[in-house]
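Aim 2 progress update. The chain analyzed this quarter is reproduced below.
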Amino acid sequence: STPEDSKEFVVRIPPTGGGIYAEYDLAGQTRTQQLLHDYGVATPSPIHYESDDSWLGSSFLVMPRIVGHTPSDTSYAVRGWLHGAGPDVQRRVHDSFLDTLVALQRVPSEEAPWLRRPNGVGNDGELAWWREYIEWATDKQVPPLITEAFDWLHRHQPAPPAELTVCWGDARLSNAIFDDTGQIIGALDWEQACLCPAETDFAWWLATRRQTMEVNGLDADPELPGFDSQAEVIRRYEEIIGRPLQALRWYEIFAMVRMGCCILRVQWLLRSMGQADHGLTRAPVMPAGTIEAIRE
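Predicted structure tokens:
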């Protein structure tokens, strides 16, 4: 189904009792999704933000429910709908997701001033935000590995590109909905949208692809027959955006450090709720390849 045909709706409210993030700016997410939809990104639309908490006990937003397929981060390459869909559908999933990242490059960053971090935009602003985040997320009990990773990122931080773009901040297949043909019909979860280099989202996608292969013990590139190899998709993306990607390995490592911060927050929440035996509390914070890279 398409959002325009929807007779069902999704309501999002901030979590109670602690969440992944300290603040949930639903008004900002609403503005982001509306802006991106105007530029051809498949965000759910129309979307409405309600600040009056007398309805549900908190502010909330309402958007159409989109029915389709959402690949799992951890298993899409070895089982499930996408794995069994065949090369043609896999190709459309791959290319429509890539097209979404390209579409974000067409959104004028000056039209999204609410996406500025408190400490600025680009890599400086993101590094500062995430260092403050992990202090909050772990109640100032930051593991040495994360401190080591941020020190590495600061030491090797690349020069910023001339232009910043609106970035998803969480560009992975599990944040997208696809129809039966593989076309993307929903781009979801814009909590971490930011103004950053184009490398930010692209590296996040590449890093999550590598992580999927590592988790499943795959030694294949590409991980599905309908996908481009990593080298080929890099070449295509560079050709489309009209410039070479800079310091891509740094951006991939930053992606995995950011994801590691979120994993630590989930683990902290589980332990605080008395679920210290939950399987996620034993999940690796970062992939082995990322740890090796920061210790080279």
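The chain is about 40% helix and 10% strand. The CA atoms of residues 203 and 260 lie 15 Å apart. These observations will guide the mutagenesis experiments scheduled for the next reporting period.
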